[in-house]
Amino acid sequence: MADVKLMIAGRPYDVHCADGEEAQLLQLAAVVDEKARGIQGGTEVRQLLFAALMLADDAQEAKGKVDKAEPQSDSLRAAVALAESREAAARDELRAAVVREQAALKELEVARSTAVAPSAPKPANDRALLQIADRIEALATKVEQIS
């Protein structure tokens, strides 16, 4: 336990607190002292009473603000959770689209590599085709003569 000397409304007070909480206690005492000194007239007890009432009023106002803010916080948390959920779904959808695109590109590469490219006719084939064309023309001429 630590011993702390406080000065509130011009009067010294010896107070015990847990080790390590001395600074916090001194800070709280300074707040109480400021409130008590702000009250003019009356006895020391009256100053401390009104300081306590004003601090209780401040605490109640702060609690009211917190209570008002909690529903807004809850709806904001829900909105954030929904946005995170949608982000995760969009990320999953994007990953799936990337996988499908990669698969399609691989299929295209395979198709290109296995496709038979039209080969240029070879000169021997050209000669044979010309000979066949000549025979067809000769036959056509004979057919015309017979008819």
Would you write up a description of this structure?
This protein has a domain at 2-72. The chain has helices at residues 22-37, 44-114, 123-146; strands at residues 2-8, 11-17. It has 147 residues and is mainly alpha-helical. The protein has a two-stranded antiparallel sheet. 76% of the residues lie in helices and 10% in strands. Helix 1 crosses helix 2. It contains 3 helices and 2 strands. One of its GO terms (biological process) is cell division. Pfam families: ZapA. This is Cell division protein ZapA.
- Arithmetic mean pLDDT: 86
The count of strands amounts to: 2
Largest sheet: 2 strands, antiparallel
What spatial order of strands do you see in the largest sheet? 1-2
**How far is the N terminus from the C terminus?**
134 Å
List SSEs in N-to-C order.
EEHHH
Sheet/helix structural class: mainly alpha
Taken as a percent bin, the fraction of beta residues is: 5-15%
How big is the Rg?
48 Å
